[in-house]
Amino acid sequence: MRTGFALLLAALMLAGCGGEQGGAPAGGDSAAQDAAAPDAAAVGTGKAVDGPVKVAFVANNPSEFWQIAKAGTAQAAEELGCEVEFKIPADGSAQTQQQIVEDLIARGVSGIAISPCAPEHQTEMLNRAAAQVNLITQDSDAPQSDRACYIGTNNYEAGTAAGELLKEVLPEGGEIMLFVGSMDAQNARDRKKGIEEAIEGTDITIIDTRTDRGDRMQAIANVQDGLVANPGLDCLVGLWSYNGPAILNGVRDSGKLGDVSIVCFDEEDETLQGIKDGHIYGTIVQQPYEFGYQSVYLLTDLAKGDTSGVPEDQQIFIPVRTIKQHNVDEFISEMEQLLDQS
Amino acid sequence: MRKALGLSGFLLVLVGLTVGWEVAQTGSTRFATAANLRNLLTYVGLFGILSLGQAFVIITGGIDLSVGSLVCLLGILAAMLMDAGAGWSPWLVLPAMLALAALVGGYHGLLVTKLRIQPFVVTLCGLFLYRGVARLAASDSTQGFGTAYDGLKWFGRGTLYDLVRGEGPMLPGTSWETALDCVPAPFLIMLFLAVLVGAYLHWSPHGRHLFALGANEEGARFSGVRTDSLKVLAYVLCSLLCGAGGLLLAFKSNSLQPTMFGNLYELYAIAGAVLGGCSLRGGSGNVVGIVLGVAIIRILSNMVNILGIPSQVEYIVLGGAILVGVCIDELVGRQARSRARARV
């Protein structure tokens, strides 16, 4: 019994270490902690600092999306001559984010741009951080917290853009179905609302929304079942990034490629390939590169005490882009360049 | 046998209720169509293989919680090695993955038999370890086979119709073609494996020893059964089947996210085996029952989608139906036992 428990503990610790290694981009932790002492004084006296600025960017979970954001932070850091710590919570949990933020503050960063995993439950943590350093949110907002500003996509606008695509695909109207991991997430709700508003007054109707809890196998099954349950379906819409490839796979396995249209969000490889092949009509992409780039610029300004970059409504929206067959190649080579940089 | 009959009954009631409900609501059925049968059998095949593997360990009185993570690790590694960048041959990679799976199973078995660590703990550690390794190997980025290996992907998602289709239309035309389209490759593979597993469990002396060992380990050992090596073998077979199922799942999904792929699949595997009549106390289980158990679970999930029941309800339907099934089984079994006793 005791051996079993010890082994379990060891495994848990191993898992924890592995996770942290995956998240930390570079640099020894102990060295950074040693260097934290002089910076800590600056944190104590106020949020504005002199000398080289050190800021941090905290993602919400591991994915390629954040590699592109990282390229943006690196570019801005190079232009400004500042230092950026890029952190990814390996398990995508609020708990790990809190740990990361506490560590970053201890190490003396002057500002943090974070994509909160569970904004409504993290207010206290965010406020505590905002009291010590410049805090902005990016990608996902926490409007009820003391964050100085939000930089990210307006998902409602992204939904509207998808709605415009639907109107192009189905000028005569038709039946569409939405697929997403979970409707709890604010971005899913906003995207759906945007689509609904855009297709209002047309003959396009949303007949159902199926969720898959983030399980891609279930996402494919939902698509296959949806096609069986609704033979009159005209277009399938994937709200989260993996739903695009899942729809493509489900439609292909049902032998219905070419019979139904597909519209989706984000830029998974298979989605882009599907657009190239003409199986997917179009996708709405965000610009994570800009999230990273603009976050670092804003945090550097704030570190110097310059708040002119923060608009009155404390929200900076990065516009979405619509990728269709005519501009997909150009977009792919752009992405490859950015990923090479990071 | 009684169990298999009961499960068939449960399955028929479920199908009857679904079709009845559909017909009452819309006047026609989408559930009982060829396209839906094809989809259903594909998933019964994919998940059935995992449950068959799980059954070996459950029959010994153990449990394997590492299935989902092992599925993830093997799928991710296979995708990474066969990727255009690494460019290893599938002839090398796939056998290597199965060998790795067997190795993992062997190590589980040795820890359970030689170090006497509980199976729950050994495989719980596996659950963390293998997912961690998969994430580290892939640096948390999504892996897949891209547009390559269409032939291999057929094993995960194709049907017999694909073999005769040639350059013909995607959808079957004649009724003969439709019938072929209702036989998915993963389902055939699962049936083949089920026959092997059934022959081993129910017709070989090894199988009888495995049941004896699960029911009463001491007793089996004193009657000359080599319990330790038999147990290790059960873990090896479990992981091996898990590897085979995992690779097929990877071909079907083709988009493997290290943090999510295979998540909770160990629980589906256990649920299929338990609903199919495997007792977690060990010593009982039946291959026909397991296949039926898996089929029931997949039908429940499919039914939620076809009837347009909100996705959130899926787990309620799943948990509720399995619970009802297991309870009925227990009550009927008790009655049968008391009647048998009364006769004596």
Using brief descriptors, characterize the structure shown.
heterodimer; A: 342 residues; alpha/beta; six-stranded parallel beta sheet; six-stranded mixed beta sheet; 12 strands; B: 344 residues; mainly alpha; 15 helices; 74% helix; 0% strand; globular
Task: Compose a concise summary of this entry.
With 342 residues, chain A is of the alpha/beta class.
Set down the secondary structure blueprint.
The complex is a heterodimer of chains A (342) and B (344).
Chain A: H1 2-23, H2 29-34, H3 36-45, E1 54-58, H4 64-80, E2 83-87, H5 94-106, E3 111-114, H6 123-132, E4 134-138, E5 149-152, H7 155-169, E6 174-180, H8 186-198, E7 204-211, H9 216-229, E8 235-238, H10 243-253, E9 261-265, H11 269-277, E10 282-285, H12 288-303, E11 315-317, E12 321-324, H13 328-341
Parallel strand pairs in A: 1-2, 1-3, 3-4, 4-5, 5-11, 6-7, 6-8, 8-9, 9-10
Antiparallel strand pairs in A: 10-12
Helix pairs in contact in A: 4-12, 4-13, 7-8, 9-10
Chain B: H1 2-26, H2 34-59, H3 67-82, H4 90-113, H5 119-138, H6 150-157, H7 160-165, H8 175-181, H9 185-203, H10 205-215, H11 217-222, H12 227-253, H13 265-275, H14 287-306, H15 314-343
Helix pairs in contact in B: 1-14, 2-9, 2-12, 2-13, 2-14, 3-4, 3-5, 3-12, 3-13, 4-5, 4-12, 6-12, 9-10, 10-12, 13-14, 14-15
Order of helices and strands of chain A: HHHEHEHEHEEHEHEHEHEHEHEEH
Strand order of the largest sheet of chain A: 2-1-3-4-5-11
Which of globular, elongated, flat, extended, rod-shaped describes the shape of chain A? elongated
CA-based shape of chain B? globular
Mean pLDDT over all positions of chain A: 85
Oligomeric organization of the protein chains: heterodimer
End-to-end Cα distance of chain A, whole Å, is 47 Å
Radius of gyration of chain A: 22 Å
